[in-house]
Amino acid sequence: MELSGDYHFPKPPQAVWDALMNPDVLAGCIPGCRSIEPDGPDRYRAAVNIRVGPVSGQYTATVSLSDLNPPHSYKMAIEGSGNLGFASGVSTITLTPTDDGGATTVHVDADSQVGGAVARVGQRMMGSVAKGMLDRFFGCLAESV
Fold first, then answer.
1. How many whole angstroms separate alpha carbon 89 and alpha carbon 114?
2. Which of residues 133 and 9 earns the better pLDDT score?
3. What percent of the chain has pLDDT over 70?
4. pTM reported for the whole predicted model
């Protein structure tokens, strides 16, 4: 499943970057996040509750950051599994300043795969649920910056 979006922040790229690199901010904004902890350089372990329609499950995930180009871009890879299946994906996140440099547009391109019971039961809803989670995350992040 491919997903993309643009999100606007009234702060310069460095402020947005700092929020995106702060595990405490992320834990507060990731929908269903129970915990997120460092697991090595540019690597984290997270525990998340996810609901897709009538199906919900607990997942543990490893999040790895690469190609870091502060405060402009990075790649994020996620590998997770739980009682209802698995999820994996890669995202490219790009931060672009406005012409005056006082605000930032964050562009996200993501490609993910989901399998197991959650995919079978909620397959028709996966795209809208994923987009909704992305929108909620960046909405929360905008309030936190």
1. 9
2. 9
3. 95
4. 0.89
Q: Which two tokens stand for residue 117?
A: 């019971």
Beta strands in the chain (DSSP E): 2-9, 33-38, 43-52, 55-69, 73-82, 85-97, 104-115
Looking at residue 124, its pLDDT comes to 66
Whether cis (ω within 30° of 0) applies to the bond prior to 71 is yes
The CATH number covering residue 40 comes to 3.30.530.20
DSSP 123: G
The domain in which residue 4 lies consists of 1-144
Tokens standing for residue 42: 């540019």
Residue with tokens 């910056």: 145
Q: Helices 126-144 and 13-20: crossing angle, nearest 10°? A: 120
How many domains would you assign to the chain? 1
What sign does the CA torsion over 45, 33, 89, 68 have? Answer: negative
Kindly report, residue by residue over 107-119, the tens digit of the pLDDT.
Answer: 999 998 888 876 7
Q: What is the DSSP letter of 124?
A: G
